[in-house]
Amino acid sequence: MNSALQFNISPYTSFMQETKVNLGNGIELHVEVGGKPEHPTILLIMGLGAQMLFWPDFFCKSLIDQGFRVIRFDNRDIGLSSKVRHEGKRLNTVKLMGRFALGLSNQGAPYTLHDMADDVSMLIDRLGVTKTHVIGASMGGMIAQILAAKYPEKVEKLGLMFTSNNQPFLPPPFPKQLLSLIGKPESRDEEGIVNHSLKLFQLIGSPGYVNQIEAMQTARKLYQRSYYPAGVLQQFLAILCTGSLLQLDREIKQPALVLHGSRDRLLPPSHGKAVAKAISGAKFELIDGMGHDIPAHFIPQLSGLFAHHFKSSY
Predict the structure, then answer these.
(1) Listed residue (239, 237, 68, 69) closest to 141, CA to CA
(2) Which of 24, 81, 149, 183 has the fewest CB atoms within 10 Å around its CB?
(3) In what order do the strands lie in the sheet with 41-45?
(4) Predicted model pTM
(5) 127 and 2 Cβ atoms separated by less than 8 Å
(6) Is pLDDT at 88 greater than 90 in this prediction?
(7) Within the chain, what is the greatest distance between any pair of CA atoms?
(8) Torsion angle of alpha carbons 260, 262, 266, 271, nearest 10°?
(9) Phi and psi angles of residue 54, each rounded to the nearest 5 degrees, phi first
(10) Confidence of residue 186 (pLDDT cuts 50, 70, 90)
(11) Measuring CA to CA, how many Å separate 75 from each of 112, 199, 276?
(12) Considering only CA atoms, which of 75, 83, 1 is closest in space to residue 37?
């Protein structure tokens, strides 16, 4: 780890330390690191509009206890990382979504997933990490695919969770779930935003495993930490203006494990299966009962599968 970086104990969990990392491209990322420096590193990349705290402490601690050093961070435009101010032309999101579904190219976003993957590559360099395992969830999985293809020297093994390669004609997200993810709350005060987040957790989460009290506490904690809806829209535009990752998947040579919940109503399991089919030698595991989230019930299974994958000699 880069000795020039100054770390403090995370205000959220005692076994992680936080710092700010200036990438040198106008972006500064907020980062947390936990585990022993001599252990193999796992870099966690979170999804659309999701702060790094969506990687549950229990998940991070489970990987640390299995002999890994864990890094989680806020992507650009979310949480405590840099916000991208864009004064460009307003884009027709519905039109972009239609073209995206058909595999047609889009332009005009402030940045693309390639830029976000470049952020991650620079973060790895700034942290002084030579090579790392990577786990990406949802949009974070898309960024991870680009990272593995463009910077193979930095990615040891690849772990993907409820993600997609956005190839044309995959089943679309369920409308209610997608609208809740990118839609606006009924009111802009704290209670309205927290209730909107709670509704989202219930719509995309694992049926039967969303604890309403814990979800409400999480929503409030995230709101009080950072609320920047413009960043969520800009990340969504980044997905729409990046398009299919199918060709990049075919370039990935690292061993890959793709996990997907059987009850995912945002990205149906066929998305994860498409990724695993496109990456040579990739393994696919369907997690029975899991949705588009990481509930405590599934963490021992998920962390165990990833730890076994990263420790295996294949």
Answers:
(1) 239
(2) 24
(3) 8-9, 17-22, 28-34, 69-73, 41-45, 132-137, 155-161, 256-261, 283-287
(4) 0.96
(5) yes
(6) no
(7) 52
(8) 50
(9) -70, -15
(10) confident
(11) 12, 23, 24
(12) 1
Tokens of 219: 């929503």
pLDDT, tens digit, 9 for 90 and up, residues 136-180: 999 999 999 999 999 999 999 999 999 999 999 999 888 788 777
Give the β-pairing of 41-45 and 8-9.
Answer: unpaired
- The secondary structure of 13-54 as a DSSP string is -TT-EEEEEE-SSS-EEEEEEES-TTSPEEEEE--TT--GGG
Hey, what domains does the chain have and what are their CATH numbers?
Answer: 8-311 (3.40.50.1820)
| CA gap 195, 174 in Å, rounded | 20
94, exposed or middle or buried, with CB in 10 Å at 0-12, 13-18, 19+?
Answer: exposed
Question: Tokens standing for 19?
Answer: 């710092």
Do you know the residue count of the chain?
Answer: 314
Closest by CA to 231, choosing from 56, 20, 85, is: 85
Q: What is the mean pLDDT of residues 255-273?
A: 97
CB burial string 39-48: b at 16+ within 10 A, e below: ebbbbbbbbb
pLDDT of residue 314: 65
Q: What is the pLDDT of residues 110-124, one digit of tens each?
A: 999 999 999 999 999
